[in-house]
Design a protein that fits this description.
three-stranded mixed β-sheet; 2 domains; Alpha-Beta Plaits; elongated; Alpha-lytic protease prodomain-like; mainly alpha
């Protein structure tokens, strides 16, 4: 899929530069220059997806998925750089004055490339979300932003033809460049967050809801919950409280069942690194094992597990009952 998008990007880049040669429009040039970024980023994205798909090895025990964050960061940086170059070119052309011509043909070519980018972007973004691939999703979002920029560019070219105000060309180019820079900064910000193991709160909340909705009485408590993304793979660190009298074999079976539940229900590849805690007397009021042979306090209520509470490094308790 990504290889096809790369080839399509090269073809669309050629078409945009043809449109620029016809019109000599700075706004059209801004669109053409950004397509160079599309091609460069698409090439690295293809490489990163190939590398991210490689299995774990001795040198990369967590897999190769982090390369997707690097790919998206590079793409975002190139996008922002292209925006800066476009602004420089537009201001220079504004001051020196460049004759614009053949706007009709150029408008049609840009409209065609915009429609193609829209279709490719929608497909790529959908595939990226389904595969939980940041690289693929970022490429899709980038193509969609390119499509909207092309749509705005077409509208601007039509306005120039109708009004005859040629200075609007450079103004539109600067506007498109600012939009491009904003998109690039967003991509870099998201990538840096992934490289720094920033928790994706939406994903973490989804996983906590799955565990809470399917919890067993034996899973007395979950806390110190952390989620790290390595490409499409998720790594979960957590503390799970189990009955203190469980054997190592029984505890392992419970954690294995929890892992299989999340993998099956979330549709993701999830690895668990679980620290098991023994229950303590303060756990009894929230423990739902009604026939527990060593219970020291009566069951009071089922405490829901939410993202706000499982992230903390402390067991859930019923207020006023902790000892």
């Amino acid at each position: 899929m990504q290889a096809g998008v790369l080839l399509a990007g090269i073809l669309l880049m050629v078409v945009k530069f043809v449109a620029w040669r016809l019109t000599q429009s700075n706004a059209v040039l801004s669109d053409a220059l950004e397509s160079i970024v599309n091609v460069a980023a698409g090439g690295f994205a293809l490489y990163s997806l190939t590398l991210a798909a490689k299995p774990h090895d001795r040198e990369h025990p967590y897999g190769h998925g982090k390369v997707e964050f690097i790919s998206a960061a590079l793409e975002g940086s190139l996008v922002a750089l292209a925006g800066g170059l476009i602004i420089h070119r537009a201001i220079d052309a504004w001051l020196s004055g460049v004759a614009i011509q053949h706007l009709g043909a150029g408008t049609l070519l840009i409209a065609g490339t915009g429609a193609a980018n829209l279709a490719l972007g929608l497909v790529l973004r959908k595939r990226g979300r389904q595969a939980h691939s940041l690289t693929m999703e970022a490429s899709g979002v980038h193509l969609l932003s390119d499509a909207w920029s092309s749509a705005a560019l077409v509208l601007g070219l039509i306005v120039i033809q109708l009004t005859g105000l040629l200075w609007l060309d450079s103004l539109f180019a600067i506007g498109f460049a600012l939009l491009i820079i904003w998109q690039g900064i967003r991509m870099v910000r998201r990538s840096v967050g992934g490289i720094m193991d920033e928790t994706d709160m939406t994903v973490a909340d989804e996983l906590v809801r799955i565990i809470d909705a399917n919890r067993r009485p034996e899973w007395i408590d979950v806390h110190n919950f952390r989620v790290i993304k390595f490409g499409s793979t998720l790594h979960i660190d957590a503390h799970v409280t189990l009955p203190w009298y469980y054997t190592l074999e029984s505890s392992h079976a419970e954690i294995k069942d929890m892992e299989e539940l999340v993998n099956r229900t979330s549709g993701r590849e999830v690895e668990f690194f679980i620290h098991t805690d023994p229950c303590v007397p303060a756990s009894c009021p929230v423990c739902q094992i009604m026939d527990c042979p060593v219970r020291q306090a009566p069951f009071v209520k089922r405490v829901p597990w939410t993202l706000a509470t499982v992230l903390a490094n402390r067991k859930h308790v019923v207020p006023g009952t902790a000892t």
